[in-house]
């Protein structure tokens, strides 16, 4: 941490952009501007690191701080290289520690000792990733999935009967939804729960190998019960997927009659969790074990539900389990932030090659390529931090009942399906780039990055495969789009089509582009001024989402009338673009959240630097999709070049602030636990430089052969 | 394998492209073309899988086949999840097995029992990755680095004295080049070897912590000797980095006097190798232990070398060790091919969601997104296979002396620096995409992908950090570029600048683009016809490399005259683009090799499909860099859209051939060792479908609630 008092020097931020010469156009020789030096102090403006750190902690700052204190203790931390069996037992023990510390009951009912604090619960839970992702996920299985299913899908009887032992970990449990044959398509699982009127029991059965429950945490070893998802069948009718509370093992750990299973064995990561498979052969549970908030079966086998539509009922049930996606978005963002803290700290100390001087080697982060590899990822991580806090506020509003309409729930699910894919993929990309940026050192377990990457890997496919989630978002966007015309007569639709065509003619055949080219010609400066304008960025990002969706909707508008197979084929031919449109939407959500967050930043220096970070994020998105903007006539070639030129300039400006920007994440050495980010590299560099300097001064350094001739 | 006899049906390949309607332009509704069905036979044309497989095996096909036989045996294979200590001992034992099998001496001199077969040696060595990447790399350390250094940097005395025990593994050894403080910049290592005339010994010394040797295979446990790279100092002059043969440990495994070290401990992968650190405190070795092919010290301390320039000498010495990069390119390509074989086989069997039918779920690979994720990576892998074989032929020509001029060696090094980064990054991306495409199953160690990815991770930064290697390529391209003008008068340079400016005006301000737009308008068909033309692809790819280099050279042409620091800053401001230019060059090399390989494909059906694969690779590169082509006026927006449309079409055409294309890699179940690619998934799917079909036929399937009303 840098002394914040020293940061109260007069800010020149308002003027600075004007005094930095614009990146020369490509037909001029680059002016030889010396690269920023690592040992230089951050240039004005300056970040108030402590204040910014507080802002990044977000709405549940105090809870996060307390959770980070817990994560800083070795007893909750991962031991790198621990064998799987020991790691699993260790994490089980850590769950007990969490219970003792009263750290995991925030979301449960007050009458059972909880706090009914849904947002705070997730905030605390996410921070466990700092200690060990296996601990985060195994806690999530126990209280966020198994317990939450009883809480949200069960009723008062289930809460009273099952929750206390779940909360206390007396009953570790599995969340038995996924099957070997069905993951993303939960509605099609094969397990059946057939009601037997005579005995008033449900008969849980696994009809074939593909219907084995699979990949379930707590299933291989520790789970003594499970919430099992199965097709509820009564009176010959299949009422769709419902959840049942099913005891699994006896006190000695043996499977109960009719139940069997397998260990999933070693995984790519998260080996502190005992994932496994389960199968059921006519296993009987009492009628009352149906978690019946959204569907009940009377003694005589009559089915009833507060939600008439089976489809809506299914999605409502699944919707109550959205918190997994919320917490993965937060934990993935934390992992990216940790990776960048490690790599940027190391990159600020480690030196290699001496292009600019005969004696001093360059600090890695002074290389443009190194900056290009890490700083845009830092900008994205910042965007995610802001987006995640808004997401969590929304989640809290829905689950606390403050804002819990159908629309609120649907919005929450769409946000979850949009943000979780981007942040989990970003975590993997960032961990990998950080690993590579640290070279061989990054590959050592002692520097933490590889272990985190191994654990986070599965975040991109569990709690909803990322591609499937983005497709959900796209379908929602298509629905919203078509709703604009739902009540309109054919004329309105026709008018829309005409306006689209006109727009295409305007954007698509070069007229607007040509005008832009003429206006821009010779003035990179003017192009840059416009690009750094918030509204320009917003318009470009928004426009892309809308245009992509409108285009696809146009292509699909007659598909509804086709036979099912042909309609599916038409949809399939647009699937890749649909998913890209959903990604564009999610990127826009992140950009908007960042921009709103920026509005709450009060310190002028911090605000200036953060604006550059936001611009780097926004323009980075536009650069990534530059071809689209060019093809669709939204940017002239001249202006498109200015995007990259301005990104180069932003990166140069941000480079001196890189350390402050990662320091503001607030991770301490006990959280990072990376040798190379401990200051050891700075010591090594200082020692080496002192060695050569002393010999140079004493004249005892051997003369290079070349100079000796 | 499919019966190749049945493939002699009349080929319609020549006509097919014309009869498939072009992808409709974006303002038309997509015609409802049913997606290809997984159970359909590959459409005409057909691939002759066996013939193609033979072609993919390349120049050393028989050696590869024999090496794959070895790799198919369990005793050489990795045991997933084996603890590090046991894994290390197992791999050491496997090295002994390889010696017993006579599998690793191909490159050594005939008089010592070798075969002097450099290309065949690498081909065999690469295939070890199928058994265990740790085995590949530990073998590489012993015979490809430690042994090869003695072979290529030593002279007859060293060969006679040291090679037999290295070849027999009596002396396992480390290749002690990298230091904690210097990896990519080998010239700046800190270890010194100071000649003591009185005792006729070299004194090896580690002056500070940053100069500890680090990340060395065989250093933590097994190495009893090392080739140590150090600054050779004699008579007060530093003659630069040279290699010394240094004994490390006594018979009991203890360090010799003055030597110490540390275990690097657990790594992100390759844990069958005992990487570690070494340091030397005034360790004395006889004068003869200098590996003196490129530099000798006489008894009186006089230094001499056949290469006068210290810089050229250094690069010549390092150049002899290029084989590491060659073999990583091959092994990385094999890993990508394995990953795709697993994911595509699984994607052809696994079903999820039933959009197109009321009963049958879709095979994953029938989803457009799934195809988009895997098939372009398959095309790149094919390009790499062809490029790697040419690379290996070049390597063999240089090391066998068949074509061993200075230019040949420089070309070989540039090719190595270009191809190794692309293929090792591609391996990681492909392994990750394959892992995600297999969902949760992909995360299980039993399905192999995660373990391979963990092991291959470090390939992108060892034997030359990928970014540093690409920068080397870029510098070579810049040098070649400026050489065009080296002997020209100022007038030639001036003319060049004028022609560049004229070209920019033509390409850059929309004139050519506008003309293209007018020509293309309404004719996606014409645009596609041109894009699939080989020469068009070649021109687009070549043009980009040349234009990027010319542009950067133009910006840097006055930098030479600047003071060192300013010149370095100017270079640094172009570093990112330089590296991108090098990547473009490497992509072009791959595309050209693929195209040459295609010319040798004789079977018409195979040739047709392979042409589509090559087109997918080439157009995929153009799509990736579409913004550049648009900005620089090489493609009109209309034509740019046709690139994506044609890629969509190519992918649709290739989809039925996907299985054949991965089968042609020729991996057997013993090589893949992935449960999900074993046919188990097909059995599960068949069982589940039979279950439902039987109940549907018998009328005993419970009625869905919706239908029951």
Automatic annotation (TrEMBL), chains A, B:
Composition skew (Polar residues), residue ranges: 1-12
The keyword Isomerase belongs to this UniProt entry's keyword annotation: no
Residues in Acyl-CoA oxidase C-alpha1 domain copies: 319-478
Known cofactor(s): FAD
Primary localisation category: other
Ranges of residues in domain Acyl-CoA dehydrogenase/oxidase N-terminal: 90-168
Subcellular location(s) per record: Peroxisome
EC number: 1.3.3.6
Positions of the UniProt region annotated as Disordered: 1-44
Family of the protein in this entry: Belongs to the acyl-CoA oxidase family.
Protein name: acyl-CoA oxidase
Native organism: Agromyces ramosus
